[in-house]
Amino acid sequence: MVIVDTGFGSIQFIHGVRENKYHIIAGIACTHKLVDGRSVTQLHKRGQQLYLSGFEVSCLYILVLF
Q1: What proportion of the chain, given as a percentage, has pLDDT over 70?
Q2: Is the separation of the CB atoms in 14 and 32 below 8 Å?
Q3: How crowded is residue 15: how many other Cβ atoms within 10 Å of its Cβ?
Q4: Which of 34, 38, 57, 65 could join 42 via S-S bond, C-beta 3.0 to 4.6 A?
Q5: CA 5 to chain centre
Q6: What integer pLDDT is reported at residue 56 of this predicted model?
Q7: Helix (H) or strand (E) holding 13
Q8: How confident is the model at residue 57, as a pLDDT?
Q9: What are the tens digits of pLDDT across the range 24-49?
Q10: Are 1 and 19 in contact (CB under 8 A)?
Q11: Are 61 and 23 in contact (CB under 8 A)?
């Protein structure tokens, strides 16, 4: 399990962690987009699990803490 702050929440970093078979809990910048086109800032609750666009793994869940 890898826990990181928003500074390490880039797509490249998360892909690297997942390639090494680790799970990750990451802070996500509000500039990321969801697969349905909405912005992370349009979420109504903290701690929601979601799919971010730009990830090759379709079942990847990210815990949003902002």
Answers
A1: 79
A2: no
A3: 16
A4: 38
A5: 11
A6: 63
A7: helix 11-19
A8: 57
A9: 877 777 788 888 898 878 876 766 77
A10: no
A11: no
